[in-house]
Write a structure and sequence with these properties.
The complex is a heterodimer.
Chain A (H helix, E strand, L loop, with lengths): L5 H12 L10 E4 L4 H11 L3 E4 L5 H6 L9 E5 L9 E4 L2 E5 L4 H6 L1 H6 L1 H8 L4 H6 L2 H6 L8 H6 L3 E6 L2 E6 L4 E3 L2 E2 L6 E8 L5 E8 L10 E10 L2 E10 L6 E2 L1 H7 L6 H14 L10 H23 L1
Parallel strand pairs in A: 1-3, 2-3
Antiparallel strand pairs in A: 4-5, 5-10, 6-7, 6-10, 8-9, 11-12, 12-13, 13-14
Chain B lengths: L1 E8 L2 E8 L4 H8 L18 E4 L2 E4 L12 E3 L12 H8 L9 H15 L6 H7 L10 H16 L5
Parallel strand pairs in B: 1-5
Antiparallel strand pairs in B: 1-2, 3-4, 3-5
Classes of the chains: A alpha+beta, B alpha+beta.
């Protein structure tokens, strides 16, 4: 029904809010660019009606569950067929992953296994095989979920993303990328094209752990990633990131700074984990209470640092 | 937006008129006549709509039909040859890996890809469970499903497979 009056839409939305079941997809025009210049032209031409997608494993459920509602026709720009965004390359000290690379390809990649094993460790625990075969790295980041499991490993790896728009290429540190749940610094006309990760060094170790209400196909109640480098028996650098405990995945700077320069003692690690849990203020929701999240965050950080220490022995 | 869609459906070149907002699930069921692809959760939790897209299992409910242009799609109808059930299907009936049957087509497709990938490596309980984690069975028949997959792999290693 082509009635777009404001009153009618408000009514439709309030009715839809209480509707349990699968909502219809909005009108779509499907685009599948092959070259970067075609992609940029499409996002430029279609402006606010453009949506860049790849696997669609989050896009479709967002519409089906009513989280996203569109009154106008959408121009869907599918970047999953772009060869330039489907590669995993290693150049010098950086692992560069295209936004359209599927999670299954992350698991299959020998480069990721060698240069950023913590990312593979997280991806292995994500969703199901069917979803991993379609879902992409770029999608997991751009959806900006506080529970995105690829993000804590990338945050501790000091990763950055490359954003393209008509003005050229921009490098944004992942720590600066997220602005809230489902929100990022990406603006209209911009596309996230690559994720860049500094490669793992010999004296470094990283670990990821998550807790959900079950093991398989589940959204994290809390996820934690840790990366430490060790020299002469002391923690040289430390990175600690947590997911599902704040509006965005976060790093806990106070706990990181505490760990740096300290010996690899059990007490030091335990205190660091306590500080990490102290620094966050998670919310209670249908998956968990805030108290439980704090407890679990502390345990996950502790176990992850222990695991890193073990790996460096 | 209406658009023509050409792809390989169960090894046959197929052209259908689809709408860009249709998912692969809707097109396979409504235009393609492949009713073994079951519609259930429509958000990638249950796996009842699992099909093979370029030989890899995907949830047909989470794939836009428009994006399979030129690709190959296999549903469990495509496993039947000359009216004969596939050895994998026979294993599921022999081992009682099928109860109400709603999850079965999805289980079959995921298991089919798994057995093909595995080659000569015998599939362990753990590997099968991890691979089928995205396929829910609410009759609690997982033990028999795992047995079915192992029996099917033996059939493949004995040369009865296509």
């Amino acid at each position: 029904m082509p009635d777009n009056s404001a009153g009618n839409n408000a009514m439709k939305n309030s009715v839809m809010k209480n509707f349990i079941g699968s909502r219809a997809m909005p009108d779509l025009v499907y685009h599948s660019p092959k070259e970067m210049k075609d992609l940029l032209a499409l996002v430029d031409t279609h402006g606010s009606s453009a949506r860049v997608v790849a696997g669609c494993t989050d896009f479709i459920p967002s519409i089906r569950t009513g989280r996203w509602c569109f009154d106008q026709e959408l121009n869907l720009i599918d970047i999953s067929k772009m060869p330039a965004l489907n590669q995993i390359e290693k150049t010098d000290d950086v692992l560069k992953i295209g936004a359209g690379v599927s999670l299954t390809r992350i698991l299959a990649s020998p480069e990721v296994k060698v240069h950023c094993p913590v990312l593979a460790q997280a991806v292995e625990q994500m969703a199901s095989l069917q979803v991993r075969n379609t879902a992409t790295m770029g999608g997991n980041i751009c959806m900006a979920s506080p529970a995105a499991d690829t993000v804590p490993p990338l945050l501790v790896s000091d990763a950055w993303v490359i954003i393209r728009d008509a003005g050229g290429e921009h490098k944004v540190l992942l720590t600066d990328f997220f602005t809230g749940p489902g929100r990022s610094v990406l603006t209209q006309g911009q596309v996230l094209t690559h994720i860049c990760i500094p490669v793992k060094k010999n004296n470094e170790s990283a670990w990821f752990q998550k807790i959900g209400t079950r093991t398989a196909v589940i959204i994290s109640v809390v996820s934690a990633a840790v990366r430490v480098s060790v020299s002469n028996g002391i923690f040289e650098t430390a990175r600690i990131a947590l997911g599902s405990v704040a509006p965005t995945p976060v790093r806990v700077a106070a706990a990181e700074q505490f760990l740096e320069g300290k010996p690899l003692d059990d007490q030091v690690i335990t205190e660091c984990a306590r500080m990490a849990a102290h620094a966050i203020s998670p919310i209670s929701d249908l998956r968990s209470s805030k108290e439980y999240r704090k407890d679990v965050a502390q345990t996950l950080v502790k176990r992850s640092i222990f695991a890193c220490r073990e790996a460096l022995k | 937006m209406k658009m023509p869609l050409t792809f390989m459906l169960n090894n046959q070149q197929t052209t259908l008129e689809v709408d860009a907002r249709q998912t692969l699930l809707e097109v396979l069921r409504n235009q393609g006549g492949m009713t073994s692809v079951h519609r259930s959760c429509e958000e990638g939790e249950c796996g009842a709509c699992t099909v093979l897209l370029n030989e890899e299992p995907v949830n047909a409910c989470l794939v836009l039909a428009a994006s399979v242009q030129g690709a190959s799609v296999l549903t469990s109808e495509g496993l039947v040859k000359n009216g004969k059930p596939h050895p994998l299907m026979k294993a599921f009936t022999d081992e009682l890996g099928i109860q109400c049957g709603f999850c079965t087509p999805g289980m079959l497709m995921n298991a089919y890809a798994l057995i093909n990938r595995a080659g000569d490596n015998l599939l362990t309980d753990q590997v099968i469970r991890k691979t089928l984690e995205g396929n829910l069975c609410r009759c609690t028949g997982y033990v028999n499903i795992i047995k079915s997959v192992q029996t099917a792999q033996k059939a493949k290693l004995a040369g009865e497979w296509w």
